[in-house]
Design brief:
By secondary structure, this protein is an alpha+beta fold. 39% of the residues lie in helices and 23% in strands. Strands 1, 2, 3, 4, 5 and 6 form a 6-stranded antiparallel beta sheet that branches.
């Protein structure tokens, strides 16, 4: 280049995106391009020939010639004022932040310096905004270069880690990593730089960071990548989650404590019901003997009074009606004792595979009559329902009791829904419900739209004699009986209730494999009297005399034994045939079953009929009567005793005895429900 005059004014300089100003060695402006005119607000002819200091803010103007002279001593292309904040001055006196690059060209007139000037106001504003956001961020932010060196940190990072900013910038990021994992960190860092997608660091892992004082804290770290002029920069947002983990641990502790307290309440309730069941069973056993005496001797007296009333009427007819009231009261008491035994799981039952859908279907008409016209009954049966193992009569009693309970809770009308389904209970679910074990169950739900129960009422709903009804309107044994029947069958029952919404009783019965067999038909009863010899073993004098009297007046030959040892002795001395041994189950010295076994050794053809008001667990395994055993439950009437005796005597030697319903005795009827 011969000189500036040789450069055409319409040169490529006008196409440059930056303002370009050419300066002679004496500091005079030799050329400007169009962008310079626009940026500074001068016309070209107003700048050319002027000192370049016209474009320098006054605060820097005095020192600028020295800087210009210093550049001429080593005129290499480089940015001006590296590391300094530069500014330029417009014609109107306003200043703007500038980025200036210098280069030199040798001409005939000397070294010609060109300055490319860029207004970086927008970039500075963006940088200021970025810095503001960075400093205002709630998380500690650390920017890391590919070599692992820290390039930037925010104020929160200083506070969190305890370092000053200048202590971190330029240092290795591993200074913030706990010593235990420090050796592994570079490999993880390099792997992230290979695929720098925004994501949490160490997903699924428990991360930690290290402060300046050496203490560590649990951390949550999110990574993101940013392309900069200096290359890729990875930003790590670091959050101390100590408080959150402590709060979470406290929530878990409180949740576990609440769950533990809930299970303790359930267990306490279960234990309380078990204790009440033992008490109820014992009371029922004692009452059964008394009731058997009352029922039958009242019947004896009733026969005499009835005959007198037919002949004389008057006061005898009044006495006959009074005796009927005593008999009804005794029958009612017998029903209560059976309910108490059911609640206490002391009833001897005959479980068999059954189809719960069939029972619900067969009971539907009876339930509709029980509910009345003001309550709608809806049933929903699972067509693939598994067979359950339970006593048919007891399941029917469960349905009746729950229907009566629901009816009384819907005095103004409502809806009762019965549905069945299959349920598989896993170990986790079973652990939440005391008494429930894992396995397959048939689920029976009975739901009403009645008044519902308050929590304090629901907690005691299964207790015997607990009732919210007015005096005389219920025995308080309905739900207690349901509880006993379901739990004795190996199932689980619970109540879900909301006041003014309704109540659902949920019962689960163990499911079994296989088909449901057809029910066996019992042989028709013939004449009830007979002439066989029967040995009666009973330690209660009143029961012993009562049983003897009933059998003797119906043609049987009766041998009486007051205890097990006496029965064994008599059986060894009597030469005549004894056709039937009728023995109480629970007696002092020797139990009824032991008596039967010892006598049967001498008399292998002997038939045995046990009688008891409390046979569990002497004759039963888990309340289930063993095959081959016949049981007469107390209290019994004359007809029931004679029917059972005749049934056992007439059974073929190879036939399995027909035990009948364990609640037999002629006293199973409608029951009051709580």
């Amino acid at each position: 280049m011969a000189g500036y005059a040789d450069v055409p004014p319409g040169s490529l300089l006008d196409a440059a995106p930056d303002a370009i100003v050419g300066v002679r060695p004496d500091g005079r402006i030799a050329l400007v391009n169009v962008q310079a005119e626009r940026l500074f607000g001068y016309r070209r002819d107003e700048l050319v020939g002027q000192s370049v200091e016209i474009l320098v803010p006054e605060v820097y103007r005095a020192s600028h010639p020295a800087r210009r002279a210093a550049y001429l001593t080593d005129p290499r292309p480089r940015p001006m004022g590296a590391g300094m904040e530069l500014a330029a001055l417009r014609r109107d006196g306003t200043q703007f932040p500038a980025e200036i690059s210098l280069s030199a060209v040798e001409t005939a007139e000397g070294t010609f310096v060109t300055a490319a000037i860029r207004d970086v106001t927008s970039r500075k504003r963006a940088e200021a905004m970025f810095r503001g956001l960075l400093e205002a961020a709630p998380d500690a932010i650390v920017g890391v270069r590919p070599d692992g060196r820290i390039a930037l940190v925010n104020a929160q990072a200083e506070r969190l880690f305890g370092y000053d900013r200048d202590e971190l910038v330029g240092n290795s990021v591993e200074i913030l990593v706990p010593e235990g994992t420090r050796s592994l960190h570079p490999r993880h860092r390099d792997r992230y730089f290979e695929d720098p997608r925004p994501r949490p660091m160490g997903a699924g892992m428990q991360l930690a960071a290290r402060r300046r004082d050496g203490s560590e804290f649990p951390a949550e770290i999110s990574l993101s990548a940013l392309e900069t002029e200096d290359g890729l920069l990875v930003s790590a947002a670091i959050r101390d989650v100590t408080d959150r983990l402590e709060a979470q641990a406290e929530r878990e502790r409180l949740r576990a404590q609440a769950e533990r307290e809930r299970l303790e309440v359930q267990l306490h309730q279960s234990q309380r019901l078990e204790s009440l069941g033992q008490l109820a069973g014992g009371v029922a056993h004692d009452f059964n003997n008394l009731l058997a005496v009352i029922i039958n001797y009242t019947a004896f007296v009733g026969e005499v009074v009835g005959d007198a009333a037919k002949l004389q009427g008057g006061r005898w007819e009044s006495a006959r009606r009074d005796i009927e009231q005593v008999q009804r009261a005794a029958d009612r008491a017998a029903q209560l004792t059976h309910q108490l035994l059911a609640f206490g799981r002391r009833e001897v039952v005959q479980p068999r595979p059954l189809d719960l859908n069939e029972i619900v279907h067969d009971m539907e008409q009876l339930l509709r009559r029980t509910l009345g016209e003001h309550v709608e009954l809806h049933t929903y049966a699972d067509p693939e329902l598994w067979p359950a193992l339970a006593d048919v009569g007891q399941i029917e009693q469960v349905l009746v009791n729950l229907a009566v309970n629901a009816r009384d809770a819907m005095t103004g009308g409502g809806t009762l829904t019965i549905d069945t389904s299959n349920v598989r209970v896993d170990q986790d679910t079973a652990s939440l419900k005391p008494g429930l074990r894992p396995g397959r169950f048939v689920h029976l739900r009975v739901s009403d739209s009645g008044t519902g129960m308050y929590p304090e009422v629901m907690a005691r709903a299964f207790e015997p004699f607990f009732t919210t009804k007015a005096k005389g309107e219920g025995s308080g044994l309905g739900l207690a009986t349901v509880y006993g029947i379901i739990t004795q069958a190996g199932g689980h029952v619970e109540i879900i209730s909301t006041v003014n919404v309704g109540t659902t009783v949920s019962a689960m019965l163990p499911a079994i494999e296989g088909e449901v067999p057809l029910a066996e038909e019992l042989p028709a009863s013939g004449e009830l009297f007979g002439g066989e010899t029967i040995m009666v073993v009973e330690d209660e004098p009143a029961m012993r005399e009562l049983t003897r009297r009933i059998l003797a007046r119906n043609g049987y030959q009766v041998v009486i034994a007051r205890s097990g040892p006496e029965a064994i002795s008599l059986a060894s001395t009597i030469s005549d045939e004894i056709h039937l041994l009728l023995t109480d189950v629970v007696m002092p010295q020797v139990l009824g079953r032991d008596v039967a076994e010892r006598i049967s050794r001498r008399r292998p053809q002997l038939r045995v009929l046990y009688m008891s008001g409390y046979a569990y667990p002497i004759l039963a395994q888990n309340g289930t009567l063993e095959p081959g055993l016949a049981l007469l439950t107390k209290p019994f009437s004359e007809r029931v005793l004679l029917s059972k005796v005749r049934e056992v005597l007439d059974a073929s030697p190879t036939a399995r005895p027909a035990y009948g319903n364990p609640a037999s005795g002629g006293y199973v009827g409608p029951t009051d429900s709580d």
